[in-house]
Every structure is written in C-alpha cells, then in structure tokens.
Amino acid sequence: MALHQTYLSMKDKLPAGAEVVLVMHGRGNDELAPSKELLDEFNDWKAKFVPGQGYETAYHYAWDKSNYEERFRAQIAANPKSAARLRDLAERAKRHDIFLICYEGYDKPCHRKLLLQIAEQEFSAPVDPTPFVPAAPSEA
User: Fold this and answer.
1) Phi and psi at residue 102, in whole multiples of 5°?
2) How many of the other CB atoms lie within 10 Å of CB of 140?
3) pLDDT tier, 135 (very low <50, low <70, confident <90, very high otherwise)
C-alpha cells in the first residue's frame, strides 16, 4: 500500500482496486494542481526556448526558468485545503494504493512527483516513486 504516480494514458492499465486521483485542473482536485499563474508562466518560458541553451528540452528549460518546483511547493504549503487533501491521501495510502495522475510522462519533472515528495516528507506517506509499468497480459 502506497502513494504512487503515473500519467493519464496509463489510467486504464492500473491494478484493479487502485484509487485514482487526477491532479489536473477541472478534474475535481484543483487544490493539488498548479496554479493558473504558474502554468501560464511555465508555458511562456516553453515558448521562448531556443535549442542550445544547455537544456534537454523546452519543458526542462521552462521548469527551471519558472522556478516551478519552489513555487509549486510554496503554493501547496500556503493553501490549507491543499495540505489537508494531501494529508488525507497520505493516511489513506497506508491502507490501499493511490495513484496521482496528470499528463506528463515519466521522463519529465512534474508536480505529481513533487506531491509524492511533499506527502512523504510532511505527512509520512508511504510512497513508491517507481514509474508504474502495467503487467504483461497473461497468455491463455
């Protein structure tokens, strides 16, 4: 039993009984999603990316330039509803598997990974940061 993370296209491949928490805006858990301001600035930096600036991708460039990690952590810490929701998930993850889901693949930094770190550090959540890999279909 633990708090896990994956991306949206893996949702239908999760183990039966796993709880899914969509952490994107408009999916019922906005208190765990990045603010519109942070997303807008992140996207502005992505648009300004020019290859050869020492960053692997526009995504990585924008993550760094928007100071995404620090700002997202501050956003969660400053919002009592966010902290309460994450605390609740941390407690429930002690009894069953919960998957935080957003759009980004495993190869990028992402706010759902930050949520796992915060839940573990602040609320002693059992966390499995290993990327989810669906079980191979059994042959009959």
Assistant:
1) -140, -160
2) 3
3) confident
Structure tokens at 13: 């491949």
Segment holding 43, helix H or strand E? helix 36-48
Residue ranges per structural domain of the chain: 3-123
Distance, in Å, from the CA atom of 32 to the CA atom of 56, rounded to the nearest integer, reads 27
User: 97 pLDDT exceeds 60?
Assistant: yes
- Partners of 6 in the beta sheet? 101
Q: What span, in angstroms and rounded, lies between the C-alpha atoms of 39 and 116?
A: 19
| CB of 110 closer than 8 Å to CB of 129 | no
pLDDT digits (tens, 9 = 90+) for 9-64: 999 999 988 999 999 999 999 999 999 999 999 999 999 999 998 999 999 999 99
